[in-house]
Design brief:
Blueprint lengths: L1 H11 L2 H22 L11 H4 L2 E8 L7 H10 L3 E6 L4 E7 L3 H5 L4 E6 L6
Antiparallel strand pairs: 1-3, 1-4, 2-3
Length: 122
């Protein structure tokens, strides 16, 4: 659609029409990005009073324990992690946990790394 609109503008030699269509395309693309971007409150949803001290984390399981993802997930739950996803083929578990319990996750045998999830904005 973009190519055909630009081609029509070029054929008619209307510079203002070409600029108008280009501007509309930029506005529509920007609006679609903004509408699909999650609100910061969606990150750890639910009750803001109880979730204020929680952080989202990504936990990497070492290769020696990668085939024991179910057991690793149970140990992480026991340490206080609320699991959102278990990506078995990648050896990654994502979830949220209270800030003061994050360090306990890295002490679990089989956990290679614990990283806080970071929001990236454009």
């Amino acid at each position: 659609m973009l190519k055909s609109a630009t081609a029509i503008c070029m054929m008619k030699n209307s510079r203002w029409l070409q600029q108008l269509i280009s501007g509309l395309i930029v506005v529509l693309m920007s609006a679609s990005l903004v509408s699909c971007w999650p609100e910061s409150s969606d990150a750890v949803n639910a009750n803001p009073e109880t979730d204020m001290d929680k952080v989202r984390v990504n936990i990497t399981i070492d290769d020696a324990h990668a085939d024991q993802m179910d057991q690793m997930a149970e140990q992480l739950k026991g340490a206080g992690l609320e699991i959102e996803q278990t990506l078995s083929t990648l050896g990654i578990v994502t979830g949220s946990i209270e800030k003061d319990k994050v360090s306990a996750l890295s002490e679990i045998t089989g956990v290679e790394a614990v990283e806080e999830d970071r929001a990236v904005g454009l």
